[in-house]
Design goal:
mainly alpha, about 0% strand
Length: about 250
């Protein structure tokens, strides 16, 4: 199963979410929370040029977009938003290592610019998703730790970190006990109504080897799906339920 918390879906959301902020939050942990606040906070100077570069990337003209963004960076090297957009375009063309370098620059400059804590946490969370796309799971864990250190109540980062600690392909990254604690906190913050955080809690219990609890919470997660979510996620949740029923944990790609 290709879990949409990360992977190909993230690559597309990364760039599409740059230009506009969705009115409602996307699925917790399953997709990017979006980069809306980051993009809404972009500086007015050069804003039109950044928007033009984004539209070039969106239309498939990544090389032209990168050239336009480099021109903006050359004229204003401290513009963290330009580095952020460059990272998004680099993700699209599958240059994750280069994208991560740009995100690090963006974070460094954003700190100097005294951006909001919420926005800074989003940057760390976005770095983590890019690390996961590049199969750099330990780096992803550190980035998500940074995000929740800044904003301990951010349910997206909490859920993403819990999922990573429960399902990471690399055994040394997994930490089922901490995954359970984080997922329980996330479920509580969501008033136990979010199917995806409950799904993560089930995966964490399965990683611990407590398959009775894993089955219980997986069934609860499936019940919490709304109609539109069922069309997208019910089958994959059923697949995980079968694993847990057979005393098998779920491991991500």
């Amino acid at each position: 199963m290709k879990h949409t918390r990360y992977g190909t879906v993230w690559c597309h959301i990364f760039i599409l979410a740059v230009l506009s902020w969705l009115c409602t939050r996307p699925l917790l942990g399953q997709t990017s929370e979006g980069w809306g606040e980051i993009w809404q906070q972009r500086m007015s100077i050069g804003q039109a040029r950044l928007d033009e570069a984004f539209k070039l990337a969106e239309s498939g003209k990544a090389t032209e977009a990168l050239a336009r963004i480099d021109s903006i960076i050359n004229s204003n090297p401290d513009n963290w938003r330009a580095h952020f957009l460059k990272a998004a375009v680099l993700v699209l063309v599958k240059r994750q290592d280069d994208a991560l370098q740009q995100i690090d620059v963006s974070i460094k400059l954003a700190k100097k610019g005294n951006v909001s804590q919420s926005l800074l946490a989003q940057l760390y969370s976005s770095k983590a998703r890019t690390c996961i796309d590049a199969h750099r799971y330990e780096d992803a864990r550190r980035a998500l730790d940074g995000a929740i250190h800044i904003d301990p109540t951010d349910t997206t980062s909490l859920n993403d970190l819990a999922w990573l600690l429960a399902t990471a392909p690399e055994p040394h990254v997994r930490n089922p006990h901490r995954a359970i604690a984080l997922a329980q906190k996330c479920c509580g913050l969501n008033h136990w109504t979010n199917a995806y955080s409950i799904d993560t809690l089930a995966a964490a219990y399965a990683a611990k080897g407590d398959f009775n609890q894993a089955v219980r919470y997986q069934q609860l997660a499936m019940q919490a799906l709304n109609k539109s979510e069922k069309a997208d996620q019910l089958a994959t949740m059923q697949d995980r339920l079968k694993l847990y029923s057979n005393h098998q944990s779920y491991q991500g790609d």
